[in-house]
TrEMBL record:
GO terms for biological process: type IV pilus assembly. Pfam families: N_methyl, PilW. It comes from Dyella telluris. The keyword Coiled coil does not apply. Keywords: Membrane, Transmembrane, Transmembrane helix. This is PilW family protein.
């Protein structure tokens, strides 16, 4: 190889590499690209985290409103829509001298602004958060069964179909064109499709006539195609959950198991309630301004919600939302 060819090859090899400055510039540009990609990734992750937390809050709000609205709509409602004429033979009811709130049909709708006499405020699991509103509701359950026959002398109903959820000690409402009656079942047979209402179950009388008579039985025979349904009892409030947060709770009657507390929806931090009473000039008033609970025809509830993710917002805190719903009582709206 001649000296000229060697020099030519040497010259071409030396110009094929990168200088130190070029390498440093390339590294800087690479870092800028990587930083940009990382920033986009973190931004997308933050957006996803926020949207997921917001979606959870909206889903929890929707569920809370649906559960609460279902009980409000059924408050004071019988399957026959004759809630003004109701016989009540429960020993815990007012006619027999009882003072249980769930056995008093006048408590079909009753609200409290922090002074609920049923669920005490405290710091234990399921205890009500102090100074929060609560709402007591009584009404017929959404499912009812038709009566095949009724014998008041033997205190027994025969139904057209059995219900596997019915049990002895359940509280029922039976109604027809004339009136409704509230009683506690002494026995239930799914095989015979019979519901008994003897006095051994907590009834002051086996007579279910209207008006209520506990001293002497006021017998009344409910005819075929009368409707029988369980009494739905609920006290809605904000309570403390086992994880140290707050939830929407329902203190209600669970059949033969009596009154139980149920945690319904987590992340609910507050419940504010106002009421529409027919005849008042103000559309919605606080519980303390209601003069006749039997004339309340709608309830407006505002729920304060908080996301489970405490770092979901742009301020690195939990997402909070206040949402309002108005629900009418079916049997009190013309």
């Amino acid at each position: 190889m001649t000296r000229r060819s060697f020099r030519s090859l040497h010259r071409r090899g030396s110009t094929g590499g990168f200088t130190l400055v070029e390498l440093m510039v390339a590294m800087v540009l690479g870092l800028v690209v990587m930083a940009g990609a990382g920033s986009v990734f973190l931004s997308n992750q933050r957006v996803y985290q926020t949207n997921r937390a917001l979606s959870d809050v909206q889903d929890s709000t929707r569920l809370a409103f649906e559960l609460l609205a279902r009980d409000i709509r059924h408050a004071g409602l019988t399957a026959c829509s004759n809630s003004a004429r109701v016989a009540n033979v429960l020993n815990d009811g007012p006619t027999a001298g009882g003072a249980a709130w769930w056995a008093n049909w006048d408590n079909a709708v009753r609200g409290y602004a922090g002074n609920d006499p049923v669920v005490a405020a405290g710091n234990g699991d399921g205890d009500r958060v102090a100074n929060t509103h609560s709402l007591q509701l009584l009404g017929g359950d959404s499912a009812s069964h038709s009566v095949a026959s009724h014998d008041p002398t033997t205190a027994q109903f025969v139904l057209n179909e059995a219900d596997p959820d019915y049990a002895a000690k359940d509280v029922f409402i039976v109604c027809d064109y004339d009136h409704a009656a509230i009683f506690q079942s002494s026995a239930y047979s799914a095989t015979g499709k019979t519901v008994s209402h003897a006095t051994t179950a907590g009834n002051c009388s086996t007579g279910l006539g209207f008006p209520t008579s506990c001293g002497t039985a006021n017998f009344y025979t409910f005819g075929s195609n009368a409707y029988l349904t369980r009494l739905n009892v609920a006290d809605w409030y904000i309570g403390r959950n086992p994880d140290g947060g707050t939830s929407l709770y329902r203190f209600g009657r669970a059949g033969a198991n009596g009154l139980t507390r149920q945690e319904m929806v987590r992340g609910v931090t507050n419940l504010q309630l106002t009421y529409h009473q027919d005849g008042l000039a103000t559309p919605f008033v606080a519980a303390s301004n209601v003069t006749n609970w039997n004339n309340v025809s709608a309830v407006r509830a505002t729920l304060s919600m908080r996301s489970n993710d405490t770092h979901a917002s742009t301020a690195n805190t939990a997402i909070t939302r206040d949402m309002t719903m108005t629900t009418t009582l079916r049997n009190r709206v013309n």
